[in-house]
Amino acid sequence: MRISLTMFFAATAPLSRALRIAAPRAARRASSHRPGVALAGARGKRHHRGRWEAPALAGAAGTLACYGSAVADAEWDGDRVGGSWAGVIDKETTGVPALRSRVAAGDGRGVLVAVLDTGVDPAAEGLLATPDGSMKVVDVIDATGSGDVDVSTKVTVPADGWVTNAASGRRLRLDASKWTVDGKPCENPEGMEFRLGAKRTDALWPAALRGRLAAADRASLDAAVAPLRAAARAARDAAMRDGAADAAELDARVEALNAGCKALKPSRESAAPLLDVVTWREPSSGAWRCVAIDGAEGGDLVARAADVTVLGDFRAATAAGERSSRWGTFGDEDLLTCSASFYEGGDVVALVVPAGDHGTHVAAIVGAYDAADPDKCGVAPACKIVSIKIGDSRLGTMETGAGLCRALVACRRLGVDLVNLSYGEAACLCDVGRFVELSERLVRGNDKGAIFCSSAGNNGPALSTVGAPGATSSALLGIGAYVNPAMCGDLYAMRSPAVNPGGAAPGSAEEAHRGGVLYSFSSRGPSPDGGPGVSVVAPGGAVASIPKYTLQPQRLMHGTSMSSPNACGSLACLVGALKAENVPYTPDAVRRAVEASATPLPGVPPTDQGRGLLAVDAAFDLLADS
After folding, report:
1. For helices 358-367 and 560-580, what crossing angle results, to 10°?
2. What single DSSP character describes residue 392?
């Protein structure tokens, strides 16, 4: 995990002084402090073969945030536009408000963005709907295969409704008419064929969730055994005081009880159940349905109808306007959002769950929408999102070559407008390999093409630390991470942030958003082949939504994993405006306009910032006038 020493001391040095100055005022204004923004205790997310990607607040700086947020609120009101928390997800810096003031469609409407990451939770805050009420996430795809279930075994239910699931060894009672979708009973004509399978979730559920459930199981076991242990120890101690003959026997019983508790101690593996998976196809509508449930808690799924959530194929269910069949959870304890996708004529169903919190955070930066609080909106709140999971749950969210290739094929099949990839690793070769070949086809291989944004890497500040593929493929835009005064105040409670005004008036709103520097960890160019490595830079920190299973609504993360979706969301606004104004464009034309219109940061080498700070309002002018 990386944190700049300059940032650390800048955050800590003025703390005591800030508390003395601002505490009385902050106390008076405590009732106006915005709730629901998780700034303290945020964790980093490990990606890229052992590399820490998008680390959250580190060490003492993280501890200070919960105290400093009130100080920042008191200190920065004069610098923010309208006094809002504009740095929580920075939408000002890249010129989005200026573009939106000229073209209403500059909010991303009509734009489809693919997020290639750990998977997006479609139930997360801000990812449920767009401003017009339509569903935000239109498809979820697991390109890793970690959620695939073989359901090729077909059975016909007898009169009593009981069948044996050979994959799990359990007896199940089935009657689809007792289960509902959007309150309506499912079809269950006589002789309807069901398909059965099973799925071990110890390699599917996120490690953090399994750890939380195991800790809860251990606490329950300890609470249940504590009275027995206390009684056994009391009996042993009394026998030893009285010199009873059975003292040794009682002592052996205490040791046996302790050994049994140790053997039964829940682990991350035992906390994840074996799921029974039942699928079928409704005769009249042709819709595929799926039930994934822990049959160990009771195989009578008719009696347990209240526990049964019927899932449909996510994309088909979304297109049909269904609500309850798009996703469900396995229970009130896990809150893990699960969706389903069907393949190979129904012989395979993929249970799609997020492998971590990183992908949901990235998607929220791109396009979250919160009608009640604009500060929680993403950069392009009207865009729609396709979640493509490339972080394999079985490999600790590491990506594989096969998964990446499947993801790019899916992007081209779905005709997405933009792609964001906040993954990467070191590489010494440029523009070679199957992934690069498919990326070229996606960007330049058809009439439409897709604009492809990727993180430059978090290995700075040394030269030539940019990673693949963001900085090593000419088809992709490599995005560096930038921080400005508004972000420093809202995200890190820094009263004296580094400022690079670049001609802006001191203390002005322009300086608050456009006067800043690069994060120290942001990777620098040039790339191994002598190319720039970094195309442009964008805000690289945000407080954004994370999956429901984390039991937190939002979390602070920073890194080039955050700057890339900020740039991607900004470009989604640009594409939406171009479409609305009937301005023709290609991904390469957008790239040239973006690089030509970027705002250079004074005193920052081109190897660090590329062409400069992204400015989509200026890029729109270039494209509209061309």
Report:
1. 30
2. B
